Amino acid sequence: MPDPPFDWRRMTNPDSCSSGFAQAAQGIRGTAAFGEPEEWRFGWHPVRTREEWLDQVPTFGGTGSCGSFSVRYSAVVLSAVRTC
What is the pLDDT of residues 22-79, one digit of tens each? Predict the structure, then answer.
C-alpha cells in the first residue's frame, strides 16, 4: 500500500514483541511448575483484494484506496508442559 498513514510493519512484526515473550518464558520458568517453555511461530502471506480487506477494516485512514495487495501475518505461541 503506497504511503499509508500508519506503519503496518510495527503493528505486525512478531520480533517487536520478543522481549515480552522472553519475560513470559522467564515467569513460566520461575514457577517450577512447568517444563522448559517453547516458542512456536507461524507465518502466512495471502493476497487480499480490496473488497476482502474492506470487509475486515474501517474504510478511513487510507485503506480504501488499494487495489489488491499481500499481507504478512504472524502468530506466536509460547507453550510449556505442566509438570506437577
Answer: 899 999 999 999 999 999 988 888 888 878 877 877 666 665 566 666 777 778 899 9
Sorted by sequence, the CB contacts under 8 Å of residue 77 that are 6+ apart come out as 39, 40, 41, 42
CB neighbour list of residue 68: distance below 8 Å, 6 or more residues apart: 47, 48, 49, 50
In DSSP terms, which residues pair with 39 in a beta bridge? 78
Q: What is the pTM of this model?
A: 0.55
Angle at Cα 82 formed by Cα 79 and Cα 84, nearest 5°? 165
Q: What are phi and psi of 54, to 5 degrees?
A: -65, -20
Q: How far apart are CA 53 and CA 68, in angstroms?
A: 9
